Amino acid sequence: MKTIVRLASLFLGCSMFFSGCATSRPPAAPEISAAPAAPAAPAAPAAPKMQTPMGLIEATAQLAEAHDTRLSVNYIWATLKDRQQDADIKTAFERALAEDTRESKLALVRALELKFIHDPKISGLDILGPELSHHFRDFKWQEDDFPGGPQGPNEQFADVMVDTLDLVRAERRANSSRDAVVLRAEATDAVWNYMTNRWIAVPGQERWKLNRIALDSFVRMREQAKREGVDLIILSSHRYPQTAQKNAARANNPNAVASFSSHSLGLAIDFKMSHGDDLKLNETATRPMSEVVRMRESPTHKWLLLRGEEFGWYPYQNEPWHWEYNPPGFREIFWAEFPGGAPQREIIIDEP
Ligand SMILES: [Zn+2]
Asked: How far is the CA of 243 from the centre of ligand 1 (A)?
């Protein structure tokens, strides 16, 4: 419901914002909306003849269409055509060409993903394809364009950006919407006790706690990211209800600091976006907006964007640093030991 309604406004918004733009127009709506919905074509039986390099590029691009990766088809084509520039891509390509197996093609996709993650010129916005990415990355963002807080002139365009991202890598908010694990109205004193009693300190970052199931997943995810050259460092996670209320009262942006957030559920992490000596960022800052957009170049953000879902972690589009644990089916598991289980819910109509 929400997606459809906002999708309509998205393209209204696009045409409105892009009408004065001298560069090419954004792609027509069906092109984008078709991408996530298109069902995978059944795999054809392996042909006995030798695979050609062009055939392999096409087959790899088809893996993106089948959702084996979040990389855009454009990125796959451009990078594989340029494969001589990158030793790892070249090796993986030649192996896939020789072996012609699904496994070797997936290994090639992984090599492409690693390049995407570690290339400083690439932004997470590039999963949208080159045209849309260009519109958002090169837009002249004003200081206060982050939605909420002091009014910026382009907040609506920021909404368009996050709605577009949501089509490719959807949110599953743990504290709101129909995917919620716990809604504000369900958080009685007994529920608060139940939730906070299930928090465990994060090994290696003991100052922070997570719901024990989210923690188990986080630890496995952190190990995988580490193997791929990315350190997942927590800047903030659990937030006791009293602290959350105090923070919200003090902050001037209710969108960024909520009194009932997924942090209060022990299901959210704010990650450090700066990376090594190369990328220094003003962490968890909502202004200037250009900095928030630049954060999407962080290898940490890009890793989570491509790989987080395998571990149950989902984005909050407004904030590149904020990720939530809420895989499908988690609500029942979360409530399993609470007397009576998960609370009964009315049908939820998502807020616009
Ligand atoms: Zn957060």
From this structure: 13
Omega into 288 within 30° of 0, i.e. cis?
yes
Residues contacting residue 28 through CB under 8 Å, at least 6 positions apart: none
**Domain residues for 313?**
176-335
Is 349 among the domain residues?
A: no
Same domain, 185 and 52: no
Whether residue 218 is found in the same domain as residue 286: yes
Domain contains 101 = yes
pTM for the structure as a whole: 0.83
**How confident is the model over 300-313, as pLDDT tens digits?**
999 999 999 999 99
Q: Which residues contact 351 (CB under 8 A, 6 or more apart)?
A: 2, 176, 177
pLDDT tens by residue, 237-279? 999 877 766 776 776 655 555 678 999 999 999 999 999 888 8
Q: Residue 267 Cα, ligand 1 centroid: separation in angstroms?
A: 10
